[in-house]
Amino acid sequence: MSDAQNKETRGFQAEVKQLLQLMIHSMYSNKEVFLRELISNASDALDTLRFQGLKDESLYENDPDLAIRVEYDPEARTVTVSDNGIGMSREEVIERIGTIAKSGTKAFLESLSGDEKKDARLIGQFGVGFYSAFIVAERVVVTTRRAGERDAVRWESDGGGEYTIETVGKPERGTEVVLHLREGEDEFLDGHRLRGLIRQYSDHIAFPIRMRAEPSGEDDEPGDWEQVNRGAPLWARPKSEIDDEEYKGFYKHIAHDFEEPLAWTHNKVEGSQEYTSLLYIPRRAPFDLWDPQRRPQGVKLYVQRVFILDDAEQLVPRYLRFVRGVVDSNDLPLNVSREILQSNRVIDRIRAGSVKKLLGLLQDMAAKRPEDYATFWGEFGAVLKEGIVEDPENREAIAGLLRFPSTHDDTVPGTVSLADYIGRMQEGQDKLYYITADSVAAAKNSPHLEVFRKKGIEVLLLTDRVDEWVMAHLTEYDGKSFQHVAKGALDLGEAESEDEKAAKEKRETESRELLERIKTALGERVGEVRITHRLTDSPACLVADEAGLSSHLQRILKEAGQAVPEMQPHLEINPDHPLVTRLDAEKSGERFDEWAQLLFEQAVLAEGGELEDPATFVRRMNHILLTLSGNGDGEDARAGSGDGGAAA
Ligand code: ADP
Ligand code: MG
Question: Can you give the pTM of this predicted structure?
Fold first, then answer.
């Protein structure tokens, strides 16, 4: 095939074009990242070659000296990064540089604001990768040959809308990226500057990064290749020799993140099993953390320092899926596959050990760096919570890491720990009270909190969708049980005095007749009608059975299209409320029914529930208002039928 025949010009995917323009502008103040990104890609390509070479030695093509080279040419004004890694075939080049395969790319681009600083952060988080070359280069030429293949390809673009691609010859396998620098970027045509950047950002790269020795004196002969970086995998070095900057740099490399991590834990385990783990908590959730199509990104698995696979989901449980890092085992075979990892005792023990370390890391952060912990909780709290359900063995430890808004501190997404709560429990209080609702505002204003407010008892305000599910599994903490304030009979334990208890009983007997009349009026719409001990200001509220679904959960399930068993809520009424006293005095049976319905319906609304027939409710309400304001008997405004307005 001749070159001319197979040279083709192709357009970038629209998203790439857009991203490139944005990146060149917003990332300019961090322009030196291009070197780190290109070296990072070279290192990944070497890792892949080494892994595939385990099965097929011919891929090495008799050149086992894996390395990265960085060169510059002041005359041509180019900087070149090359590797003898796995390389790319023509199809791979088209697929990988020219398109963005990440799900959610469109939404990501839409979220960019035009504010350069903010956008730079977002773009960094998205992953600047290969395209960062265009921040400093007006033209980029990639020549690459996949290991074991005959033909190489040359890809070339000025970062506008198009690129060309053609088949060429290239004796060495791997990839060469040549940057033709833009005007004004001559600072990178300097060996000293390039060496500085490599040591600063890429020292941890496990392969040698080589540059030619600077020419000495008069002779212009190119110097010998010399290694610039340290070249040992960071995790294999003793902790005491690694400084924070190196840990951070390594994180950026493996996590493809632009920001610094929040925390990390580095452990060497020796004895019956030997492995090293270096695990990081990112500072920010990836923009697609909740995207169901997001490919899992997790921890990289190495065996005896050979990269084996990315995203080894088995190394950390799902509820820690935001963790990034490396595990390097000495006990697994080099030919280990994903299938083998599924049920493997070595992996199980590594996972159990990693979970302990990570939970410990979070506990430590919570105790010593509360602000960072609040950042963590805001980003990943809703994921960590899943651990309560998924990991019964560590439930108590995970529960200790939970944070909630409460009636005492309603900061969202929560700063109150269960220990904080227990620390300020009232004398005689033996339960941890919580309420579930759609929002903190709805939770805070729920009538169910009235008695708690009066007595100064703290209530946790749970507003995350997963909370109902989590609380179904979290029944106890530190020996104390949880109680949903809108479920079951309210028993404030010893927080209630003997006098209060006696008064309660008296009211129950006195109100028996009223309760029966209301029950008759409401029929099947409610379970029991009883006297409340929860309300001080509201006339009525709804209560679920202890074992029943809260009305909030019923709503969530219905919205999710799930069948929800019909539940009759219990109606609790406040006999001291003027509306209830008025109802008690009502002689007309018809009007009594109407008031009773209204009492029930407003209790549904106060819970954040929906009425099945809001129109009837409104007519009923208007009728009563008109009657009260002395505007006749309100015949015209009356509800068409007496039995409308069933509850949600
Ligand atoms: P990322 O590294 O996060 O995947 P990049 O934009 O840096 O994203 O690179 C895109 C893809 O291009 C890589 O995933 C890889 O498949 C391919 N690639 C880039 N550089 C090289 C290289 N030097 N050798 C082989 N493949 C490469
Ligand atoms: Mg990359």
Answer: 0.81
> Measured at the alpha carbon of residue 241, what is the angle toward residues 235 and 244, in degrees to the nearest 5?
75
Closest CA to 185 of 70, 79, 271, 278: 79
Mutate to test the pocket of ligand 1, among 12, 20, 41 (most ligand atoms within 8 A of CB): 41
- The helix/strand/coil state of 554 is helix
Question: Which atom of ligand 1 sits closest to the CA of residue 83?
Answer: 23
Determine contact, residues 594/536, Cβ cutoff 8 Å: no
- Considering the four listed CATH numbers 3.40.50.2000, 3.40.50.300, 1.20.120.920, 3.30.230.80, the one that applies to the domain covering 239-383 is 3.30.230.80
CA distance 38 to 130: 6
Spatial contact of 136 and 182, defined as CB atoms under 8 Å apart? yes
Taking CA atoms only, the protein residue closest to ligand 1 atom 11 is 96
Looking from the CA of residue 85, the nearest atom of ligand 1 is 24
Query: Is domain 514-544+562-647 classified as CATH 1.20.1250.20?
Result: no
C-alpha 456/C-alpha 19 separation (Å) is: 54
Domains 3-215 and 514-544+562-647 share a fold: no
pLDDT tens sequence across 312-325: 778 999 999 999 99
Q: What whole-number distance in Å separates Cα of residue 558 and Cα of residue 564?
A: 7
What is the CA 530 to chain-centroid distance, rounded? 43
Three-state secondary structure call for residue 145: strand
Helix, strand, or coil here: 181?
A: strand
Q: Is 271 exposed, middle or buried (0-12, 13-18, 19+ CB in 10 A)?
A: exposed
Q: Return the CATH number of the domain spanning residue range 3-215.
A: 3.30.565.10
End-to-end CA distance of the chain: 72
Tokens linked to 533? 């001990």
Please list, residue by residue across 552-577, b when 16 or more beta carbons sit within 10 angstroms of its beta carbon and e when fewer do: bbbbbeeeeeeeeeeebbbbbbbbeb
Ligand 1 pocket (Cβ < 6 Å) reads 37, 41-42, 45, 83, 85-88, 96-97, 127, 129-130, 175, 256
Domain boundaries of the chain, sorted by first residue: 3-215, 239-383, 514-544+562-647
Which amino acid residue places its CA nearest to atom 8 of ligand 1? 129
Pairing relationship of beta strands 529-531 and 570-573 according to DSSP bridges:
parallel
The mean per-residue pLDDT over the stretch 161-181 comes to 96
Taking CA atoms only, the protein residue closest to ligand 1 atom 7 is 129
Greater pLDDT, 636 or 434: 434
Q: Is the pLDDT of residue 637 over 70?
A: no
Query: Of 429, 574, 453, nearest to 514 (Cα)?
Result: 574
Cα distances from 178 to residues 154, 168, 172, 188, 400, in angstroms, run 11, 15, 16, 13, 52
